[in-house]
Amino acid sequence: MPAVREAEGDPTAWPSAIDPLTWPELSYRLGLTDGLPTFPPERSVVDRLVAGSGLPPEFSIGPVPPSGRVATIEAVAANAAMAGCLPEHLPVVVAALQAMLEPRFNLAGVVTTTHPCWPLVIVSGEVVTDLAMATAESVFNGGGARANAAIGRAVRLVTWNVGGGRPRYPVQEVFGHPGRFAFCIAETPAQPWPPFHEARGVRGASAVTVFACEAPQSAAHWGVTTAGNPGVGRQWLELYADQMRARGNSNTHTMGEILLVITPSVARTLAAEGWTREAVQDFLWQRARRRLGEIRIRADGRPAVGPGDRYEWWPPWVDQTDPNASVPVAWSPGDIHVVVAGADSIPWGVVCPSWGHLGGFAVTRALDGAP
Question: What's the pTM?
Fold first, then answer.
């Protein structure tokens, strides 16, 4: 079976002819999948995907940790073929991977950490409509759209096959993250604020942002005044702030960046009350805080505020000897990312805590020549 021999031991070498009936079992035997079935990466399919990227097949986007194996466009396309991508998806996949490979993102740490975070791909702008991406119901599990699921899956397979990020060794993640199968959302185009990438200072019609975070934690509006009542937006934001400052979040202990996703109905209500995205970020940065004495606690219940209890990663303006010091969940208002997505029905929000100060920070890349 020469096609099998060609792929064995080298996940960047893909067979030229594949029997689609035998491929699923073959991919398991070769270790080319993390548990879900894949599509056969036939040469003709890979070539079409390479063409869709607009880049030569040998073009390198860089070494993928933890293995350090170089990801060429051809290798990315082969994994994208296994994920079920179409040629028009490739610019998004490539941009997401390039963003993840920027040093400040610390992909090596994100892939192998014990913490349950994974790179969330956030697509915003005109390309969302062009690719028929899902932005409404079930947006965090693809919403039934091929583009959402295939793009997220392609990113995962590149980290699996090229980067070698596999459980036990080198991946030490204690519980795991369901998004490691595919973690891609698209922002709702019809919203009262500028697109997410413009809020991050990236110009252009479309862009991709990657941000390593936990699975979404529901912030349902239980016990809060319903829409249409004056000042309801502030009450909703207070509820989100409360969800953000949970003691078990890495953000509560290390700051860093954090993500809030709100439904279009929440965004419209906030905008009608005069809230801009920046105003929301400022408010949450002030309100999503905990007393130091509630964050660090000794076995006997006393606040841990001695010299040996200091967190070296907190900025100097946090008085670590004061149990009443107010500690935010993010470094600055701009590090609280606010995205509009989800079903345009009942108001709702979700919070996605991050790895804190250690990495996975948001990186945004414009999609030049987006379809």
Answer: 0.94
Please list, residue by residue across 318-346, b when 16 or more beta carbons sit within 10 angstroms of its beta carbon and e when fewer do.
bebeebebebbbbbebbbbbbbbbbbbee
Alpha helices (runs of H) in the chain, residue ranges in sequence order: 2-7, 23-29, 43-53, 73-83, 90-100, 107-112, 126-130, 146-161, 196-199, 232-244, 250-254, 264-272, 277-287, 292-295
- Give first-to-last CA distance, the chain, whole Å: 39
Per-residue pLDDT tens digits for 127-170 = 999 999 999 999 999 999 999 999 999 999 999 999 999 999 89
Residue 207 bridge partners (DSSP): 124, 366
Could you write out the DSSP letters of every residue in 244-285? HT-TTSHHHHH---EEEEE-HHHHHHHHHTT--HHHHHHHHH
* Least reliable range by pLDDT among 93-107, 219-233, 244-258, 333-347: 219-233
In contact, 89 and 154? CB cutoff 8 Å: yes
Task: Please state, in angstroms and rounded to a whole number, the distance separating the CA atoms of residues 155 and 72.
Answer: 13
